[in-house]
Design goal:
Radius of gyration: 16 Å
Number of domains: 1
Helix content: 40-55%
Largest sheet: 5 strands, parallel
Shape: globular
Order of helices and strands: HEHEHEHHEHEH
Number of strands: 5
Strand order of the largest sheet: 1-2-3-4-5
Amino acid sequence: MERSLRFSALLRAQKWVLHPGTHGALSWIHPGEDWMVNLDSMKHLHTLGRKLGVEVVIENISAGHAILGGVRDFLRLYREWPKAPGITLDAGHSHIRRETEEYLGRLATQIRHVHVHDNLGDFDTHQAVGSGTVGWPRFLSSLMKTGFSEDIVVESAKGPFASYDRVREILGSL
């Protein structure tokens, strides 16, 4: 991960998205240890990113074993580490966890980057924006009302250009 972050700096990337770790098969034997290891790794990468001039942002993950998968996890992170990196809010992931509005309501000031793609609320399928059940007009309107002015990245595996056009259309109508 350090190597990836260093290469990102060479490319003059503004942000580097960190996918946090997962709970392992033995997490139940050593409760809390995976959290601490993950936290130490994030602190190290955050410090390195600052030295390199690349902002590290942490993505919310929809998988069940993610250490930082949901709103509660991020609230804990900011309680324990108030200067933790901002969030890459992946709207498809938050839709699966049914937490999109809670992210926008409770963690809006921490959102530094957004990923958009659609799904049916069950699996992370990275479909074209508008082909699933994410309520895009409501989401984008709520996002803009938070004062968000950072990058929105389309992550659709199918229909990325149509997704881009759809997002621009919705934002233009707000």
